[in-house]
Specification:
This protein has helices spanning about 10-20, 25-45, 60-70, 110-120, 140-155, and strands at about 50-55, 75-80, 100-105, 125-130. About 35% of the residues are buried. It is about 40% helix and about 15% strand.
Length: about 170
């Protein structure tokens, strides 16, 4: 299993975002960029037949779900860590990829938002709450739990497959 980390904002946008906070909730922009970079990665000869999944936190989780809905059969799994899947809106019902939502047990508002999104998902899904963890999972062992749950989910859903059809 390999991972790629992408910044979905340019350096200039990051600087503006630090002052204005206007782009972090622009889910269509973030999702569009994730779709573009995913298509680029999958078009590379060495990666064409890889199973692909998304891992996102906060609004990145919403962007991942919107992108998974748009890319449909190309995305095999999604993991949201302390995410805002509710911001994916109507895309939730269009997600086919098995989706894992992980939330800190002390992050009550985000638990509620994840439970609402969970109800809207029609794909294989799971909601895991890590007791005692807050939004950023800074408590001892919390991120390790997130890593273990995420790795298990992705390993179970990113099994080798026949070459994808285009």
């Amino acid at each position: 299993m390999g991972t790629l980390l992408f910044d979905l904002l340019t350096e200039d946008e990051e600087q503006a975002e630090a002052r204005t906070r206007h782009l972090r909730f622009n889910i269509p922009l973030l999702a569009e960029r994730l779709v573009e970079v995913t298509r680029w990665v999958l078009d590379e000869g060495t990666t064409r037949d890889l199973n692909t999944g998304f891992f996102g936190s906060s609004t990145g989780a919403a962007a991942g779900l919107v992108a998974a809905a748009q890319l449909s059969q190309m995305i095999r799994a999604v993991v949201s860590r302390g995410g805002r899947p509710d911001l994916a809106g109507d895309a939730l019902e269009k997600v086919h990829a098995p989706t894992l939502l992980i939330v800190g047990g002390e992050d009550h508002t985000v638990i509620d938002l994840n439970e609402q999104a969970y109800e809207r998902l029609t794909c294989e899904k799971a909601l895991r709450i890590i007791p005692g963890a807050t939004h950023l999972f800074e408590e001892a062992g919390a991120l390790e739990n997130v890593a273990r749950m995420s790795a298990e989910w992705l390993a179970n859903h990113l099994q080798p497959m026949a070459p994808r059809e285009r």
